[in-house]
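Sample intake sheet
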Amino acid sequence: MAEAALRYLRSGKALSVEALPRPELRCVGEDERAPVGPAEFRRVLGEFATGVTVITAPGTPPAGFACQSFSSLSLDPSLVAFMVGRASTTWPRIARAGVFCVNVLSADQDRLCRAFAVSGADKFAGVAHDPAPASGSPRLAGTLAWIDCTIHAVHTGGDHLMVVGRVDALGTGGGDAPLLFHRGRFL
């Protein structure tokens, strides 16, 4: 279906797209906050099952964190996106590297995910990995897929950042089923 959509888009005249003007950035006032509390927001959105990834970057030591806020963004050019908390201690190391690898976890990698979900620990201790071909970011063993990227853009979204990556290389690992997260637990 995606191939058909691309053929359709490429068959006609070039589509013109005008960017909207960038909004002014400012602090949100107390009277402008949504009437939804964080606990209710988390509970309701927990109904949406997500895949789980580990985002890694090269360095000494390498950087990595568990991430369930990941998505494909564009086919042409090939772009992906992940969201990371603005208070993350791992994000600055990934930003400095300028590159990252998305490791799509398989159903039996919940323990690995938990290891990458904590801060301050040596997350790579005992974790088999090799360098991804384009970025040199850790490509974790046993994953369903990996996506090797260069940081293309970073956007602010409330208390998180949306990181857009240009895909430089990718591949599959050979596992059977993905690790899923639903209602606060792994499936």
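Comment: The chain has one domain: 39-186. The longest strand covers residues 145-157.
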